[in-house]
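Thread title: Can someone regenerate the structure for this chain?

I was given the following input by a collaborator and told the matching structure tokens would be attached. They weren't. Posting the sequence so someone can regenerate them.
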Amino acid sequence: MLTKLLTTSVYSLGLGLVLQAPVLSASVGFFSNPLYSGTITSNNITNILTDFGHTVNQFDSLEASDWEQAIAENQLLLFDVIGDPIEPDFSEETKTVIRNYVAGGGGVIFTTTGDDNFTLWNSIFNTEIESEIEVGEIFLNTTNAAGTIFADAPPVLQPSVVEGAFIPSLPPGARSIYDNDNQYNASSVFISSFGQGNLVYIGFGFFDLSEDPLWGDVLNLAVDYVAVPEPSLLGAAVMISLGGGFLKTKTKNKNNDEN
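Best answer:
Regenerated them for you:
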């Protein structure tokens, strides 16, 4: 009985360390394709993430197998700013790969969707989010941010034209993290979940960071919010679990031998 309790405690401790440890640096699978996105935004996003200590692994393929590889090698997926409609070029197979990844606990960040609006997001996650332009100062929604990593996010983001989401169209359980009190009722940053995974939308274009460099802080928080643990850490937890099972089996066999 003591052995069983000890094993359970060790396993719980190991798993707790994996699941609760903050993500200080993450490997980011960054989808950026020049047919849909510009090099300026791609470079700006990459520079922001590397300045915060993250590793950016950029890829441009729409093939399902390449998305599977990006998932296997990184802790989250990030979409570059999309300037042109992209949803028709994504195969159902690739959409399914992304959908299953998030449903199983993975994380994805979308930046502003541009002319694509939320067509790709909606087609992957079966939502009906509507696009809405947001202008003026943008404020942290402290009520919705409470209890999340965004609770300490910058309180105000300076005036900018942002591709927002019409708040009433957000899926159940989604939270608007940044919005304002104007007539558009739009969210410029929101968080959502799908299955066991997390999603973040950031409506900023990342074209000119001089407008407000604090958008970089928001992107960094989004990475921390959706990133999954390192595969090596998950492996450690599994080893603890397997080790515990082995220990209990050996103890049981020893007791049987003594009897």
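Residues 231-258 form the longest helix (28 residues).
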